[in-house]
Design goal:
- With about 140 residues, the chain is mainly alpha-helical.
- It has a single domain, classed as Glycoprotein, Type 4 Pilin (2-Layer Sandwich).
- The protein has two helices and three strands; from the N terminus they run ααβββ.
- A three-stranded antiparallel sheet has the order 1-2-3, with helices on one face.
- The longest helix has about 50 residues.
Length: about 140
């Protein structure tokens, strides 16, 4: 095989810079379309997780009432589900395994209000923006 034949064979074996750039542009366009859709699912998953956690904490509060005869006071807060308050004589907890279970998916503490404005107690997360109101991932999620 001559030098020219080898050179021609080697040149034909690779991709040109233009071909690589075209493929890269196509990949970037696909990623630009897919990433926002994936992020919507991630946000929705956190909202759904918060709903489930609010239900679980509400159930733990109901167990607390069965044992002690009352809900934790505002001062005792949700920590009473993990650690026995001094004023809870018949406490048979912990009602939640870890203190971290009192944090919403965005890392903020669940809000607890007793007496509640919408029921015996209000238990809620303020969502991703940590402020009242909002839509989508920023919406408030509560036991109401």
């Amino acid at each position: 095989m001559s030098v020219e034949q080898r050179r021609t064979k080697c040149d034909a074996a690779g991709f040109t810079l233009l071909e690589l750039l075209v493929v890269l542009v196509i990949l970037v366009l696909l990623a630009a379309l897919a990433v926002p859709e994936v992020m919507k699912y991630v946000g929705r998953a956190k909202t759904d997780t918060a709903r489930i956690e609010v239900q679980n904490i509400s159930s733990a509060l109901d167990l607390y009432v069965l044992d002690t005869g009352r809900y934790p006071t505002q001062e005792e807060g949700l920590v009473a589900l993990v650690e026995q308050p001094a004023s809870a004589q018949r406490w048979d907890g912990p009602y939640l395994k870890k203190r971290e279970m009192l944090l919403d998916p965005w890392g903020n503490a669940y809000a607890y209000r007793i007496p509640g404005q919408r029921g015996k107690f209000d238990l809620f997360s303020l969502g991703a923006d940590a402020t009242e109101g909002g839509e989508g991932e920023d919406q408030d999620i509560g036991n109401w």
